[in-house]
Amino acid sequence: MARQQELLALFSDPRGTSRIDLARRLGRSPSKIGGLVRRLLQLGLVTEERPVETARGRRPILLRPASDLGFLLGVDIGLINLRAVVTDMRGEVLGSKETQSNARADLETASKSLLAATDSLLIESRVPREKLRAIGISHSGGIDPETGKCLYWHSARHWTGVPLRQMFGDRYGVPTRVDDSAHCMAFAEKVFGKGQDSSDFVFINVGQGIGAGLFLGGRLYKGTSGVAGELGHTIIKPDGPRCSCGNHGCLEALASGGSMMDTALAAVKDNVTTVLWETVDRGEPITVQTISRAARAGDRLARRILENAGLYLGLAIANLVNLLNPPLIVLGGGCMETAGDLLLDEIIRAASGAAFEAAYSRTRITTSELGPMAAARGAALMVTQPALESIWNQRLRSAKSTRAQLTA
Ligand SMILES: [Zn+2]
């Protein structure tokens, strides 16, 4: 069973795996691998893909999950937004949806609207329920990956203990997994984004909150409770503002989208001169988008808010660099999408100034290009393996019963 899981884990890579790679990673002889692959081809779980000839010579045949095996649902539950995608087994997005998550509402209202959104996405994407193979859920709070329950969500405390896996599993009757949103985004970055060629890198999600996913030795490092990467709650300024977790001066309280919005609102209330007054006068909320628009127009307050956020992010990254010495740091999430160009210079300036030169000199800091659906896509990728496993078992059973009928 363990071998089957290991094998399927390798096959679940949507980019494809070669026979040589399989033999090397499973420590089996090429002939043994040949037999296993033949079986999987017969069962229709994988297909062969002949790569085009390149100037550098012939590349090996790639084995990829078959594209007609059914569909995966990836759901990303954030404090403000709910984003969901339907993909095939290769991570190809076939339909997507973005709506409000209603996470701050009571749990009954929130769960009803979540399930209504995923139901309607499946209908709009013309995915019949029986073709749905697995569900991956990305959640902004702390998640116990073993039980699929929410361990904590500082910004919406009433979610503590919510059995997310059970909620979706009961509704759709397919294997379901839940993980932290930064972990899901890191996973998407590894497969489709800038982490593709790096076995070690750190992904940092700068959104309403801040979290990180650590890829070490080619694997996502989850820690003993599954919540590794809580970079947002590392303390950067002990006398700083109170954080949603109860501590003071956490990175999240200094540099997240939520903290930037709070700072801007407090300054407006203090009558600081700023064009953000116009937003408030129009009765619109101050968002990271309005702050970055004001900063681009030269507003001093907006610029200072973004500079400070960049500074604290840079200091947190310097700590991370001294600790892990990673070759690559990828920044993503809502704030980077909206204000990445305004934040990145300050982040790099602060990180390079504070980190040890020997640790920092070979670290590259860059921004993700995967866009707002990254966490939902990562969540769907995460369940490719359990989906393949259930299809494999189904097909083995039906092959056995056909054989039994033939010999009867
Ligand atoms: Zn905190």
Strand content: 15-25%
**Could you state the CATH homologous superfamily of the largest domain?**
ATPase, nucleotide binding domain
Query: What is the domain tally?
Result: 3
Which topology of the largest domain does CATH recognise?
Nucleotidyltransferase, domain 5
Describe this structure in words.
The protein is of the alpha/beta class. The chain folds into three domains: 2-66, Arc Repressor Mutant, subunit A; 71-186 and 373-392, ATPase, nucleotide binding domain (Nucleotidyltransferase, domain 5, 2-Layer Sandwich), CATH 3.30.420; 194-367, Nucleotidyltransferase, domain 5 (2-Layer Sandwich), CATH 3.30.420. Helix content is 46%, strand content 19%. It has 15 helices and 15 strands. It has helices spanning 2-11, 19-26, 30-42, 107-124, 164-172, 181-192, 251-255, 257-269, 276-281, 288-296, 300-324, 334-354, 357-360, 374-382, 384-407; strands spanning 17-18, 46-49, 62-65, 71-77, 81-87, 93-100, 132-139, 142-144, 149-152, 176-180, 201-206, 210-216, 219-221, 328-332, 364-367. The strands form four sheets. The chain has a five-stranded mixed beta sheet with strand order 6-5-4-7-10, with helices on both faces. Strands 13-12-11-14-15 form a five-stranded mixed beta sheet. Helix 2 (19-26) crosses helix 3 (30-42), helix 10 crosses helix 11 (300-324) and helix 10 (288-296) crosses helix 12. The model has no long low-confidence stretch (mean pLDDT 93). Bound molecules: zinc ion (ZN). Zinc ion binds at residues 233, 243, 245, 247, 250, 252. Residues 233, 243, 245, 247, 250, 252 line the site of zinc ion.
